[in-house]
Each structure stands twice: as structure tokens, then as C-alpha cells.
Amino acid sequence: MSRYFTEEHEWIDVEGEIATVGITDFAQEQLGDIVFVELPVEGATFDKGDDAAVVESVKAASDVYAPISGEVVEANGALEDEPALVNSDAEEDGWFFKLRITDMSELEGLMTEAAYKTFVAAL
Amino acid sequence: MTAHSDSNDDVATLEEALPLEALPLDAWHRARGARMVGFAGYHMPIHYDGIMAEHSWTREYAGLFDVSHMGQIGFSGDGVDEALEMLLPSDIKGLKPGRQRYSMLLDQDGGILDDLMVARPADGAFDGAAIYMVVNGATKYDDMAWMIEHLPDEVVMNHMDEQALLALQGPEAGEAMAALVPGTAALTFMQCGAFDWNGVALWISRSGYTGEDGFEISLPADAAEAFADALCALPQVKPIGLGARDSLRLEAGLPLYGHDLTPAVSTIGADLGFAIGKRRRAEGGFIGHGRVMKELADGPGTKRVGLKIAGRLPAREGAQIFVGDNLVGEVTSGGFAPSLGAPIAMGWVSLPHSALDTALEIDVRGKRISATVTPMPFVPHRYRRAAA
Q1: Residues B55 and B180 in one domain
Q2: Total tally of structural domains belonging to chain B
Q3: Across the interface, do A27 and B1 touch by the CB < 8 Å criterion?
Q4: How far is the C-alpha of B294 from the C-alpha of A9, rounded, in Å?
Q5: CB of B187 within 8 A of CB of B79?
Q6: CA of A121 vs chain B CAs: smallest distance (Å)
Q7: pLDDT at B8
Q8: Roughly how many angstroms between the first and final C-alpha of chain A, as a whole number?
Q9: CB-CB: which of B5, B51, B312 is closest to A58?
């Protein structure tokens, strides 16, 4: 399994043709206490860069984009009952949704963990 | 990931274009790990530990807020009371020494230019001011320009920009403040007076913006760090950022200028008629009186209301309010209420849809969520009022 990152502070785990998407620990830290996550429905299809989810912190609402094109195969229902999972475990149990990847070549434009760390350090 | 709404945005776009200034406690906040943001033209702490934790701490113990961005103004000279009664709808002549009152500046059409606190120090108690006023940070320069234009030459206005302003709020604020300044124990809600702390002159009122008991403390900027340190050395006091200040005041049903109150809305519509004295209603003689009297008689076109939101999705500022297909209003403040574990909002709706328990719908990103007009405050006030 490989993990990729975006400049929009999302992480993407790829296993076969399925990508699991969440926001990074850095992102949850920036957002503060998360009180609601609006997730896409199963079967929804996104092009890379489409609005895919919304995360609401105490202070603001923020869009989460589809980091790659694909069809939603599962949304993390646990976030409905416990949105704070995104704060406590952003990069594992706090995942947002899983996509069936449309175009594997889009993965090439994403960052590795090392590249993302360098990117964040420069912010 | 991109933020597409932020209730803490300043309204003054001109000020946003100018470089941010540092307030007296700037380094103090940074040393305590505050995340700083631009607000009202200043670098200000949005939070330290997190908004939820700070919000709950204030409701349970005592929180220290730096509100030095606000405008502190002293008035003196002949005819101060008469002059201020032209500008403010409140009873100034009847304001006793050591008392404070909520009021507002109105324009010729009765629109709200700012909301504010006005106090009368005892003779010579506070920097020679006959009247002391605290106005919002984002509007203070506009307020002063408006007042200079409308006050007679005999009245001298002094922008007390060498003063810091702190607020200590929460159920244990009284105990904490008394530990440093024992005399404050005698103050009740909206009373104020001059005090001394280690030779530092403090002007303290029992008031605030959280719905909790507490104090607002004006003191020389160069003494602010030492006083904030002394307060935060007490076990019940922690510094609290602007984020929790906003969620606390929203739960308390208190309007935020530039959001819930603007020049487009009126005192009566805002449900702030309590700020207008009985004598002032009858006699008039203040700017904006015509609108106030007309709305007292005929009712306002729109009203500020509290909204209880079904589910967990918050409705934010700018969200439109509907009854069926009819647009009937707009959310002006909204968010998650940490003390209630649910979203709440404040908004303006047309009068026929403003009655308590009216069922409304709010459009949040194309989704209709159910809301009900509900009494404010959302969380009961716990002021320390004088015994009746």
C-alpha cells in the first residue's frame, strides 16, 4: 500500500484500484475542533479537484477536494457520530471516503510523505 | 482544503488592506502558544488550547480575554450629558456614578453604527473622564469621526489608546478577581469603579460578553503583562482566544457588531429596545429617534431571532432562511454551541416569521435544514445581579 499527499492537505492510501482519502494531521490541527463532516454518498463520481466533502470546525467550514478522479465506494459513517475522530486520529480512523480510481496516472502528480513534510515545513 | 467561511472575518475591508498592528499583550499571547490571526486591524489570539476546551473552561472556571483592540474613549467638558444624549438613545443624565449601561450609536435613519458600553466614573476616578465609553475595535475610528462631527466644541473626547482592556469571565471570575483586588467583591452586574493593584490604577466593571459573571478591566498598557500574569497564576484562570469569545457570546445571545448588527438594521428590530430609556422614548432628542418611535408603534420589518438547528450541521453567517419557497431572512451568526453540543444561530427574519417556535428552513450548501425560532440566550446568563 502506498500513501500519497496533496498540497490541499489530504492523504490518499492506494490499495489496488481503491483509494482511501482523509485530511492530514497538520490540517486537523489547523482547523481545530471538528464538529461535523459532510461526506459524499456512495456512487457519487468526482473529477480530480471537485468538492467532495465539507469539514466544519467550531470556527469555519472548509471544502475537501477529490484528490484524484473516481467513484465513491464507501464513506466513513463513524464520522457522523463522532466527527472529533478527525482530530484524534486524522490519518487512520478519521478517513473520509474511499474512491474507485478512474485514472491511475493521476497518482503521479501527488506528493510522497517526505515531500509533504518538506511542503508543510515551508508553510 | 480551503476555508469558505469564517465568522471571525473582520467587516472593515479597508482595515484588512492595512498592515496589522500589535497590541500590548502580543508577545505574551505568543509565549503562551496562541495562534494569532488578523482581527479589527490587529494581531489577535484566536485560540491557545483549542476553542472547545477554552469555551468549556470559561463556562466552568474563569477565562482571561485580551480585548485591547476595542476603543476606549473618555469624555469631559461642559454639557457632556446633554451632548451624549444627542448621540445615544440611552438615559445618560440618569446614569449614576459607578454605573455602566449598554447603548449604541444610531445614524439619522436609526441604523446601528455601533453598540457600546457607557459608564460614569465618580468625580476624578478615571483619568478625568466624566463619561467612559468602550466601542468595538473594527469601528472605533469611524465612531470617533462620527462623534467629533456631532459633539459640540465644549465636549472633549479623549481616545485612551495607552490603555489595555482585559476581560475575566466565568463562574470563578469573582473569586479570582477578589484574590488580586479584594474590593471588586462588592461590585454587582454593570457596576464599575477605580481600584488599585500594586500601585497600578485599574478601572473595573462587572460586565462582559460571555453571559457569565465577570469583569472588564482597563489598565495602563505597560502594566497589562504583569496583571495578566498575576491572573493566570491563579489556578482557576486560563487565557482564552477570540474563537471561544465568539462561541460564548453566541450562546449568550449577544449580538456581534458588523454581523448581527449593521447600519442596515434598527434597535427595535434587533430586540435591543431595553437600551433606550423610558424618558428618552418619550422625549426623543437623539439621532435616529424617528425610526425607534415608528417601529415601537408599527413593529420593525425584520427581527433578530435565535435559531435552534436540527441535526449537527452548523448554519453559518450568510445562509439564507426560507419558509417554503419564500426567502424570509438570513443567518448573521452561526456555529456549533460547545455547551449544548448542537449547532445554533442568530439571524434576521421578516416579522411575520419571527415568532417563537416558528418552523423555518435554512439553506446550507443546497441542503435544507430545519430550524426553529427559539428564545435567547441559548445558555442562561449567570450575571451577579444586585439583590432586589
Answers
A1: yes
A2: 2
A3: yes
A4: 54
A5: no
A6: 17
A7: 42
A8: 28
A9: B51
Among B2, B51, B313, beta carbon nearest to A33: B51
Q: Are B190 and B312 in the same domain?
A: no
Reported as a single tens digit per residue, the pLDDT across A31-86 is 999 999 999 999 999 999 999 999 999 878 999 999 999 999 999 999 998 999 99
Residue B143 CA from chain centroid, whole number: 15
CATH number of the domain at B313, please.
2.40.30.110
8 Å CB contact of A59 and B2: no
Q: What is the pLDDT of residue B13?
A: 47
Q: Is the pLDDT of residue A2 over 60?
A: yes
- Say what the pLDDT of residue B32 is: 97
B137 within some domain:
no
| Range of the structural domain that residue B371 is part of | 301-388
The residue among B88 and B3 whose pLDDT is bigger is: B88
Residues of A with Cβ-Cβ distance to B46 under 8 angstroms? 59
A66–chain B nearest CA distance, Å: 10
ipTM given for this complex = 0.80
Asked if residue B338 is part of any domain, the answer here is: yes
* DSSP conformational letter for B353: G
In a domain, B325, yes or no: yes
Asked whether residue B202 falls in the same domain as residue B350, the answer is: no
CA distance B361 to B328: 10
Contact: B314, A36; criterion CB under 8 Å: yes
- On whether any CB of chain A is under 8 Å from the CB of B1, the answer is yes
- % residues pLDDT > 70 (chain B): 95
Q: Which residues of A touch B243 (CB under 8 A)?
A: 32, 58-59
Is residue B127 domain-resident?
no
What gap in Å lies between CA B12 and CA B141, rounded to an integer? 11
> pLDDT class for A123, splitting at 50, 70, 90?
confident
Statement: residue A24 has pLDDT above 80? yes
- Burial letters B261-284, b for 16+ CB under 10 A, else e: beeebbbbbbbbbebbbeebeeee
Q: Closest Cα partner for B358 from B372, B341, B339, B369?
A: B372
Residues B381 and B314 occupy one common structural domain: yes
Architecture of domain A2-116: Beta Barrel (2.40)
Q: Which residues of A touch B366 (CB under 8 A)?
A: none
Enter the pTM of the model: 0.92
Task: Let me know if B375 is exposed, middle or buried by CB neighbors in 10 A (0-12, 13-18, 19+).
Answer: exposed
The overall average pLDDT reported for chain A is 95
Residue after which a domain boundary falls, among B192, B222, B251: B251
Among residues B222, B251, B280, the one where a domain terminates is: B251
Which candidate in A33, A59, A85, A96 is best for mutational testing of the B interface (most B CBs within 10 A)?
A: A59
Same domain, B246 and B316: no
Same domain, B245 and B366: no
Residues of A in contact with B55 (CB under 8 A): 58
pLDDT of residue B326 exceeding 70? yes
On chain B, the residues whose CB falls within 8 A of the CB of A11 are: none
Question: Which of B6, B53, B313 lies closest to A59 in CB terms?
Answer: B6
